[in-house]
Please model this.
Amino acid sequence: MNFQEILGHAREIGILKSSISSKRVAHALLFAGPEGIGKRLVARAFAKALNCASGQDDACGVCRDCLAFDSGTHPNLLEVWPTDKDGERDPLGLIRIDQVREIQGTLRFKAESGMKVVIVEGADRLMPAAANAFLKTLEEPPPDSVIILVTLKPSDLLPTVLSRCQRISFGPLPEDAVRAFLIENKGISPAEAGAVARLSEGSISRASVYIEEGAHQKRREVIERLSTLGPADSDEALKFAEELSKRDDLDDMLEFLKSWYRDRIVAFEGAPHLIANTDMQRNMKDSGVEDFNRLCSSFWAIEEAKKSIAPPRYGNKQLTLEVLLLKLSGAHLM
Model:
C-alpha cells in the first residue's frame, strides 16, 4: 500500500513525505493514536517509500523493491509485535528481550540499498528489560536505518524511550470517511453505516469488526429488549441479566448501552445531531417524557457495572447485571 491509497491522515503523511523529500528522516519515530485507525499502514507505506527505486516521496508501486514490500519479502523491513509465552502473535502479549536482540542483529548489517526499517507494533507492551536493552539502539541506531514504534498507549512507554523518538500523533478518521468506506466495502445501508461509523470512533478496523461479527445487529437486539422492560418486569429483567452475563461480548454490549443512554441525554438536551445510534432513534422516547437525572444516573450505573466485573475487581457478572437491569428498568423485587 502506498501513501496515496491510505484513507485520511493527510497531515501525518505530509510530515513523513516532507522528511523524505528533504532527506531529513528521523532515526526513531513514535506513531501514537487510537486503535484501528491505520497507524501501521502508514508505517508500512513510509518504509516502502524509503526503499522505492523512484526516489520520490511516495512509493511507485511497480519497481522491484515495491513489489518485494507488497509480497512481504523485502530484506529491509522487520516487523515485531507482542507475543504470548509460546511466541505466537498476541496483542495482549509482551515484547521480550529476545525480540529486541533480533532487531539489533538485523540492524547490525547495512542495507545494500535504501534504508532498513523496523516497525514495532504495540510498543507499549515492551517488557522493562526489553525496553532498557532497546534504549541504546534508539539513541544511536546504525546509519540508514529507521525504527518506528507504534502504540495506542504512549503513556505506558518509559520516558527514556519517549525522549528518543520523534512523535507523530494520529487522530481518529473522520466519521464521513468511515461511513463511506462501510457503504462501499461492506454493503450495508447508509443508516447502519452512519451508526457504526459514529460508534467506531474513527476506527475502520473496529467498524469492520462490528459488521463482520454482527455486533451492530446484536446492539439493536439488546437495546430493543431493554426498551420493553418496565417497573413491573422484574422477572424479565433478572432473566435478561442472566443471559447477558453469559455473553462473550458483554463488555461491548455494556459499551453500546452506555452509548444508548448517552444518545438519550443529548436528545433531551436538544442536540439530536450528536446521536450515535442514528438507526435506533425510533426506539427513543419523546424528550418531553424523559427524566434527565435518571438518564444520567443510568449512564453512570452502566459504567460502574463495567468496572465492577473487570480487573482488578472481578465482580460476579450475573449479580452485577441483575442490579443494573433492575435499576435501568425501574423494576422492583416483590
